[in-house]
Amino acid sequence: MPEEDSGSSLWPGIFSRLREMNGCWERLRARTVKKVGEIVSGIAPADEIRDAYMQELEAAGYAVRLVPALTQNVMKGARIVSAALRLDEKKHFFTTEAACTLKLTLEPWRNGSAMNRLRFVAVHTESALAGGEPLLESVLKRTLHDVLTRSVPEIVKIVEQK
Questions:
Q1: Where are the alpha helices (DSSP H) in 11-134?
Q2: For residue 85, which of 156, 1, 9, 17 has the smallest C-alpha distance?
Q3: Phi/psi zone of residue 16: left (φ > 0), alpha (ψ -120 to 50 degrees), beta?
Q4: Closest Cα to residue 108, out of 160, 161, 50, 155?
């Protein structure tokens, strides 16, 4: 499980930006209950996920470099083909419910060519008494943790095959 203290979490930058986005969302919800708005962030979900993968792969002993595109001379690599992140929060009179869905398609590379695409989907929901701790950060942490713990070993297995 990811650590609950966001100050010492595996992905500290992601959660500080999420808290900023959550504050914007709360201000929007305070204006009207029926209006659904968009949260605008300077960081794309795929970039947040890429940053988490970089940290995990570096922790596993890999030197990770960002390149504009993978080429034929790449011996080991991975590419995020698509990433879709959805965060929802519903406030009721006594409770708050939060849900996070992450859909991710990865393409491991070995010896200069793409291998089979890997697809991962994770969904986490939580509820708490109204006015409790922020749930969006918690469901995002759990969802990312779920996908990372399943996908990183798969990527490593594929790029290390002989």
A1: 12-31, 45-59
A2: 17
A3: alpha
A4: 155
Backbone angles phi, psi at 115, to 5 degrees: -100, -170
The residues pairing with 97 across neighbouring beta strands, listed in sequence order, are 90, 127
What are the tens digits of pLDDT across the range 3-14? 333 333 444 455
How far is Cα 148 from Cα 21, in angstroms, rounded to an integer?
23
Beta-carbon neighbour count of residue 35 at 10 Å?
Answer: 8
Tokens found for residue 88: 């929802």
pLDDT tens per residue across span 48-96: 888 888 888 888 888 888 888 888 888 888 888 888 888 888 888 888 8
